[in-house]
Amino acid sequence: MELTQAIETRRSIRAYKADATVTKDQICEMIKAAGQAPSWKNSQTARYYVAMSDEMMNRVKDECLPEFNANNCVNAKALIVTAFETKRAGFDREGNPDTELHDEWGAYDLGLQTQNLLLKARDMSLDTLVMGIRNGEKLREIFAIPDSQMVVSVISVGVRENTPDMPKRKEVDAIAKFF
C-alpha cells in the first residue's frame, strides 16, 4: 500500500471482524515501524506492552477500560499499551530539563511512534483505535510497568468489520499561517 493510501484509509475502528487473525509477527512489524520515528536526541523512550491472549485481553477490557472503550474493541485481536520512559526526552544527561516542555517531549516522541505504528497497521490491512481514556495505574499493575514510565494509551488492533466515512478535516488555511 502506498503511504498516501494508508494515510487516507486509516480510520479509528470501533467494530472488528470476529474471525480475523493478527499474529505476533504482525505486531512486531508494527512496533518495528514505530521505532523508525525520530525521537529527542535519539532517546527512543517509547515502550509497548501487548496483550494477545484471551485472558489478558479480557482483563484489560474488564479492569482498565471504561465500558464504552471495552465495547469499542470487541473482537480486536491485540491491545497494545503505550508508555514512555520519563526524564529522558527533553532532558540533558544529568537529568536537567533542556526545554520548558520537560516530559512532554517523551509524549511527543511517543506520538510520532504511534502514528508510524497506526500507518504500518493500515499498510498490512489491519486497523486500530487509540484509546486515551483508561486506568493507567491498573495497566501499570497488570503489565508490571515500572514507575519510571508514563502510561499513555491503549491501542486495539484487528480487522475492520466495515469502513466508516472519513470525518471532515479542516482545510490547510484553517490550521496554518504562512509568513
Explain how this protein is built:
It contains 7 helices and 4 strands. With 179 residues, it is of the alpha+beta class. It has one domain: NADH Oxidase (3-Layer(aba) Sandwich). It has a 4-stranded antiparallel beta sheet, sandwiched between helices. Helix 3 (54-64) runs antiparallel to helix 6. The chain is globular, with a radius of gyration of 17 Å. The model has no long low-confidence stretch (mean pLDDT 96).
Unreliable residue stretches: none
Element order, helices and strands?
HHEHHEHEHEH
Rounded to an integer in angstroms, the radius of gyration calculated over CA atoms is 17 Å
Roughly what fraction of the amino acids lie in strands?
A: 15-25%
Order of adjacent strands in the largest pleated sheet: 1-2-4-3
Care to count the β-strands? 4
CATH class descriptor: Alpha Beta
CATH architecture: 3-Layer(aba) Sandwich
Give the number of helices. 7
Q: Which secondary-structure class do the elements indicate?
A: alpha+beta
CATH topology: NADH Oxidase
Terminal Cα separation, in Å?
A: 35 Å
Mean pLDDT: 96
Shape: globular
CATH superfamily: NADH Oxidase
For the report, how would you describe the main beta sheet?
Answer: 4 strands, antiparallel
- Structural domains: how many: 1
Question: What is the helical fraction, as a range of percent?
Answer: 25-40%
Observed structural traits:
globular; 179 residues; NADH Oxidase; 4-stranded antiparallel beta sheet
